[in-house]
Amino acid sequence: MTETTALATARGPAPAVPGPSPAAAFLALLGRYAPVLPVLALMALLTLPVSGAGTATAGRGGDGWTPADAMSGVLVLIAVLGAVRRARRPLTRTAALVLGLPVVAIAVAATGAADVTAGVTGLGRYLQVFVLVPLAVLLLVRDRADLRVVAWAFIGLALFQGGIGVHQYATGTGASYMGADVRAVGTFGPTDVMGMATVVSYGVLCAVGLALDAGRDPRGAAARRGVALLCAVLLLVPLALSFSRGAWIATAAAVTAQLLFAGVRRALAVFAVVTATAIVLVGGAGLGTAMLQERVGSITRVADAPDQSVTDRYTMWAAAVGMWRERPVTGVGLKNFPAHRDSHASLALSSGSDTAGAGSAYLRQPLLSPHNMYLLVLSEQGLLGLLALVGGWAALLVLTVRRLLAARRRGRVADCGLLACGLLVWQLVDFGYADIGGPSTVLTAVALGVVAWWALGADAR
Fold it and tell me: How many CB atoms lie under 10 A from the CB of residue 337?
């Protein structure tokens, strides 16, 4: 035995070094993800129930502002201050062009508004959703770990709202649908029936993107993918109970795109799981109610035997096209669709839609938009606005797909790219059936920010 060994033996075993306390570990975790905490706080505010007064003005195309909208302003301020403090150029030329291009067209359309207040409000809403909040998310998300935290926040919010929606359906306390208060709307109320459907759809796409990750990190990667897949399956229930045909179609298209980019084997595996789950839910759990079956069947009858909601939508689409023909370059001005609607709509248009249930009294909701984002922009902003906005979305799609293909060539499928691709495809498809407006609109801005980070952010590489 050497002298050193004998001395160590005499002293006894070395004392164990205490690990960090739970409080210290929690503070370290907060410090690690501090830049994205404002994004998480904004999403957390969407769990608050919307008051009756707020929902009355916050329907699709409405001007209602919520605490989450106020937090989006704080989010933008934090992002700007952070960019100034870092004292370096925050955006690439491509990012500045894609995100800044719509500003000019929106500003021109705002000058054509019939009312100054309406013009300023519309300008603020468009800049919030398509420029400022996406830009803030792009600046605050530093790496893929941050983006995964945001993705799990999407899933958590979707589970929360979806859980409330399922309870509404089971207890008959949801929004009115076919004479029964069974429509799942979460905390968004009956005047924003697309709110919960949008949140749940985002959650499904984020969960599928995380579940399809082909990461090589063995430390709990399989377990995380399993949890994500389970969340995606669970969220299919409130998505079905939302009775939102547009959300169903958009989700199917987006998930299909994700599966194709992930590879054939994973696509077949996930398709088998989803199919088996649907069979169990519909056949075993009895979710295939007559109302749900009728709603699914109505998708194929929108041309032959449309219901009144589809007829109203077709009529407003025709009215939007008529407005554009009058002023093809700049449109009729921001927030001017309601003022020009009756002069361009046929007699087939009803006076409004009936809303009730989910804690709200009966209300006749006026039809203030064509429920088609592309036609809304075309009618109010003309070709100038449509080319600016849609051109930016097309650029995001091309850049997103290009980076995904580059990841596949390296032999790895990026979960962040898959969920960004899913969110963008969903939004582009859904804009064919809906437009911005309502309490959930701010979440659309966050989703576009996630897409912008993957497509435009230098750190995404």
Answer: 25
Residue 420 · residue 407 · CB < 8 Å: no
Place of tokens 């995100």: 99
Cα distance between residue 139 and residue 280, in whole Å: 43
How does DSSP classify residue 191? G
- Identity at 327, one-letter amino acid code: R
List phi, psi (to 5°) of 356: -165, 170
Q: What is the DSSP letter of 65?
A: -
67-83 residue pLDDT tens? 899 999 999 999 999 88
Asked if 331 contacts 108 with a C-beta cutoff of 8 angstroms, the reply is no
153 has a pLDDT exceeding 80: yes
How far apart CA 16 and CA 35 sit, in angstroms, is 35
Dihedral of CA 446/450/453/459: which sign? Answer: positive
Single-letter amino acid code for the residue at 137 = V
pLDDT band at 55 (very low <50, low <70, confident <90, very high): very low
The CA distance from 79 to 265, in Å, is: 40
pLDDT tens for each residue of 238-248 = 998 888 888 98
| Least confident range of 143-147, 196-200, 250-254, 293-297 | 293-297
User: Which amino acid is located at 109 in the chain?
Assistant: A
Distance, in Å, from the CA atom of 256 to the CA atom of 252, rounded to the nearest integer, reads 6
CB of 328 within 8 A of CB of 382? yes
Rg (C-alpha) for the chain, rounded Å, is: 24
Strand ranges (E), 331-455: 353-357, 360-365
The three-point CA angle 418-385-420 to 5° equals: 5
Q: For residues 119 and 124, give the distance between their C-alpha atoms in angstroms, rounded to a whole number.
A: 9
Q: Would you say the C-alpha torsion 445, 68, 52, 241 has a positive or negative sign?
A: positive
CB 58 within 8 A of CB 187: no
Calculate helix-pair angle for 415-430, 373-409, nearest 10 degrees.
160
Sorted by sequence, the CB contacts under 8 Å of residue 302 that are 6+ apart come out as 310
Q: What is the pTM of this model?
A: 0.86
